Amino acid sequence: MSGLRVAGVSKAFGSTRVLDSLDLEVTDGITAVLGPSGCGKTTLLRLVAGFLDPDAGTIAIGDRVVAGDGRPVPARSRRVGYVPQEGALFPHLDVTSNVGFGLPRASRRGARVRDVLDLVELPSSVAERYPHELSGGQQQRVALARALAPDPSLVLLDEPFSSLDAGLREDTGRAVARALRASGATAVLVTHDQGEALSLADRVAVMRAGRFLQVSAPSEIYLRPASPDVAGFVGHATLLAGTASDGTATCDLGRVSLLTDVAGAVLLAIRPEQVSVSPGASDGILADVLDVSYFGHDATLRARVCGGETVVIARVPAGGVPAPGSVVCLRVSGDVLAFPDPAAS
């Protein structure tokens, strides 16, 4: 039985508590642990792998408790595959020897190595090459093949694509996700990249300061965030104070319709794609464009509502990007997320 169960796990280094009574259950597929640097993601992975011991709580892999019962199971006996950030391949060994390193000696250059190289979509021509003869993406696939070769019950990936450029990162990420699903492995992917988490994982666990804010499907995390913190971190959102009643709310962007049924003082989370931008003084709220970030396929801009301090993030098509300093008209379309305003309680 594969899967992971983390229950009430805490970990501190000196006076700094890194994980705080953390709970997580992973039954199958790929779960992404998403959070900013320093939130405890890698510490969690190292506890699961057996490189560290928790101060409190238990960790079970499958139906076996591996930490927290007073007799921790050594890392080598947990049947866990681990893919670190840089792959950590042995530079003096060729690809075949790297992949077969964790297998019984008689199997290290056998069919299992060829099978997992096929699984990670590497051609047979790379089998005799050394790490320095491979691209960064190929090195990461070799690292995954090495982790999969012993048929682990769980695969842990610690920011495995962080050193790759954008295009290679995306291609390698898709290939790794395909390989993990084809192998039937249960996997935990640690990342700070929102796009990576949302596009590759079956579930996303959003972490902040050693706690999980929400654990849900990617679409649920984006469309139905559990809190303003999640809405602001995943996918970006403009958070505005407003007053709600009868399914609508008034705020600095005018009256908007609500996705959630709340009343009174609220905090609105408006996604960039919900803000339409048009030139001149048409029907809407006038704003000064502060700056523009151009991405080729589209652009995002920040604009300050005229006569106020409210700054709004909007996404616009690449062909119609207003210049910084220009005045535009903002309108909100679609239903907006609303949360009870914590500042009003």
CATH architecture of the largest domain: 3-Layer(aba) Sandwich
User: What separation lies between the terminal Cα atoms?
Assistant: 46 Å
Which residues sit in consecutive blocks of at least 5 with pLDDT less than 50? Answer: none
For the record, the CATH class of the largest domain is Alpha Beta
Sketch the major β-sheet.
Answer: 6 strands, mixed
What is the overall number of helices?
8
Going by helix content, strand content and strand pairing, the class is alpha+beta
Order of helices and strands: EEEHEEEHHHEHEHEEHHEEEEEEEEEE
Name the overall outline: globular
Helix content: 10-25%
Give the beta-strand count: 20
Question: What's the CATH topology label of the largest domain?
Answer: Rossmann fold
Rg over CA atoms, rounded to whole Å, is: 24 Å
Short structural summary:
Helix content is 21%, strand content 37%. With 345 residues, the protein is an alpha+beta fold.
What are its keywords?
345 residues; alpha+beta; Rossmann fold; OB fold (Dihydrolipoamide Acetyltransferase, E2P); 2 domains; six-stranded mixed sheet; five-stranded antiparallel sheet; 20 strands; globular
